[in-house]
From TrEMBL:
Signal peptide: none
Type I restriction modification DNA specificity domain span: 6-171
ATP-binding as UniProt keyword: no
Organism of origin: Catenisphaera adipataccumulans
Protein name: Restriction endonuclease S subunit
GO MF term list: DNA binding; endonuclease activity
One biological process term in Gene Ontology: DNA restriction-modification system
Similarity comment: family membership: Belongs to the type-I restriction system S methylase family.
InterPro entries for this protein: Restrct_endonuc_typeI_TRD (IPR000055), Restrct_endonuc_typeI_TRD_sf (IPR044946), Type-I_RS_S_subunit (IPR052021)
Keywords for the protein's UniProt record, in alphabetical order: DNA-binding, Endonuclease, Hydrolase, Nuclease, Restriction system
Keyword Zinc: no
Amino acid sequence: MNIDFWEQRELFEIADIIGGGTPSTSNPNYWDGEIDWYTPAEIGEQIFVNGSVRKITQEGLNNSSAKMLPANRTVLFTSRAGIGNMAILQRPGATNQGFQSLVCNEDIDPYFVFSMSEIIKARAETVAAGSTFSEISGKKLGELTFWFPESIEQRQIGHYFKNLDNLITLHQC
């Protein structure tokens, strides 16, 4: 690992930051569909998510500010009521407004980003604001800067941490 090739980059430079939304709960046509729709309560204990508690329909997605997020490139990031809980999305899905999700660029390894979760969370908590509860906006999150290696090294580091996490999980069983 040669840190001479690491560069400081804003999160905006490495990912699109996408907020979530909630379809109207009074319209039954928006609910009980096939699209995963995550809430912050579902994030935090696992590295990967591949099925939400509630589901929305395509009509619900189209008539809300929720956006379809791609699988294996999206790191869900809770932006309030527990800022900084993260998980990697394993199949396409959407979130409520309690998220500012990171849709990683092609040259960014999502597992590498996930492995930085404690650092990102700590930084996000320092710039969060709010009177009732702290929240970080997508703009503020995107302006946070971190050191990133080249994509080959990201994949190697991400692979290392993924293997380590798998080993920890095996020993917990």
